[in-house]
Amino acid sequence: MEHDIIGVVAVSRAGRDKGRCFAVVGVADESCVYVADGKTRSLEKPKKKKLKHLSVQKARIPLGDALKTADKGVADAYLRKALASLTTQAAMMMEEG
After folding, report:
1. Total of domains in the chain
2. Beta-strand pair 8-12/54-60
3. Which of 50, 51, 52, 64 lies 20 to 30 Å from 15, alpha-carbon distance?
4. What is the CATH number of the domain that holds 71?
């Protein structure tokens, strides 16, 4: 698996976090990635999740600068806002369509 998956939005399909939106923030191995949402899972403590338990979406969040920043609180806030924005847009599209 290549590292171009970092920043992709994924929805959990299994586990106690089923239905929650996350952003992929790292790659563990070919079957697992690290995900964070900025709330329950911060960038400092991302969750290791198997790819088969995630529904990968087309949306992408540019995380390059957020992952490099020293202040992880700011990066978590950026991640929360980006995921909330994408969730709101998806809900509006479903209402229209």
Report:
1. 1
2. antiparallel
3. 64
4. 2.30.30.30
Helix (H) or strand (E) holding 66: helix 64-68
- Residue linked to tokens 């709330």: 39
Burial of 63 (0-12, 13-18, 19+ CB in 10 A): buried
pTM to 2 decimals? 0.84
The one-letter amino acid code at 86 reads L
Tell me the pLDDT tens digit for each residue of 42-86.
Answer: 989 999 999 999 999 888 888 777 666 667 778 889 899 999 988
Q: How would you class 18 by CB atoms within 10 Å of its CB: exposed for 0-12, middle for 13-18, buried for 19 or more? A: exposed
